Amino acid sequence: MDAFTPQQTIELVSRIGTKKAHMRLDKLWWNSFMSGPLLGFGCAILMSTGASPWYQENAPGLIRTISAIGFPVGADLFTSNVMFMSTALLHRRVSVLDLLKNWVVSFFGNLAGSLFFMAIITGYGGIFEETPIYKQAAITLVISKAQTPHWHQIFLRGIAANWLVCLAVFLSISARDVASKIIAIWFPTFTFVALAFDHVVANMFIIPQGIWAGAPFGAGYYIWKSMIPTLLGNIVGGGLFVGVAYWYLYLTGEMVSVTFDPSSLPAAMEAGGPMRRTQTEKDRDTLHQNGGTIHGLDPEEQLGQRQLPQSGTQMMSSIGRELSDDSPYAKTHAERVKQGREESSEEKV
C-alpha cells in the first residue's frame, strides 16, 4: 500500500508544525483568514439542510447525516494547528513562544474570516432570510449548540470534535495521492458533524449567524458559554489525544527517516516530473545518486541534487524538498540554533 507508516506520518506532522512556526506572520494571518470562509461554506450547507421541519421532528438523525455529507470543506485551521504545533513542541523543534504565536494568529485569523463571511456574504446577502423556516433553523441550531447543553458538555464535545478532525488530517498526511487524501479527510469529519460535536472555528460562523438571525443571547454569552469551552476541548482533543498520543507511541526515543520514493507512480506525480524518462536521464540520476560527477554542474549544486529524490528531472516535489530528512524542519530547535551559530562563526572567519 502506497502510504506513509504511522511513525513516518507523525514525523511529518512534526516537520509541518516546524514549517508553520517559521511562516511569516502576515501570510499565516491571511491563510487563516481565507480558511474561515472556506469552512463557512460547509457550515452554511449544514444550516440550510437543517431547515427541514418535518425531518427535524421525525428523523433528526437522518437530517444530521445528510448535512454532514457536504461539510468537509476547509483549509488552514487553528484546530489542526493544535496538533501540528503540539507535536513539533514535544519534538523540541519549536519553542513555546512559536506555538503561542501560531495559535493566536491562526485563531483570530479564522475568527475574522468567519465573521467576514457571515456578515457580508450570508448576513447582508440574506441567505437565511428568504423564508421564515431558514431563519428559525439558524436560531434553533445555535440554541441547541450554545444554550441547551451545559458548559462541561460543550467542553467534552469539543474534545471529540478535534480528536476526529486531527485524525482526519493525520490520515490525509499518511496518504500520497490526492484521491486518498480526500477520502481520508472525509469520514472522520463526516462523523464529527453527524454527531453534532463542537468545532470552535465552525462555531465562529454558526453561532454568530444565529445571533444575526435573532437568537435570544448575545456575543458575551457566546464567548463564555460556547467559544471558551469549545476552544479548550479542541486543544485537548487535537493536542493530547492525537499529537501527544502519537508522539509518545511513535517518536519517543526513535529516529525516523521519511523518504519520498520517486520510483512509484504517485510519488512521481507528486514530484512534478515527467512520467517517462529517457535513458540518458536515467543514467544521469543513477550517477548522481551514487555519488558520481555530473558534468556541467558545480560541486555545490551536485551535492544539493543528491540530498533529495527526483522523478526524472531537476523539478523536485515541494513536499520532498521542505520535509525531507535533510531539511531544517527535520532538526530540533537546538540543532538549528547550533547550526546558525556555526555558520555565523564561519562567516566571521
Automatic annotation (TrEMBL):
Ranges of compositional bias, category Polar residues: 304-317
One GO BP: nitrite transport
Membrane-crossing residue ranges in chain numbering: 28-49, 69-91, 103-127, 154-173, 185-207, 227-249
Region ranges (Disordered): 269-349
Main location: membrane
Signal peptide extent: none
Annotated membrane topology: Multi-pass membrane protein
GO molecular function, one term: high-affinity secondary active nitrite transmembrane transporter activity
Biased composition regions of type Basic and acidic residues, renumbered to the chain: 278-287, 332-349
GO cellular component: plasma membrane
Keyword Transferase applies: no
Keywords, in A-Z order: Membrane, Transmembrane, Transmembrane helix, Transport
Compartments it resides in: Membrane
Family under the similarity heading: Belongs to the FNT transporter (TC 1.A.16) family.
Protein's name according to its UniProt entry: Formate/nitrite transporter
Lineage: Eukaryota, Fungi, Dikarya, Ascomycota, Pezizomycotina
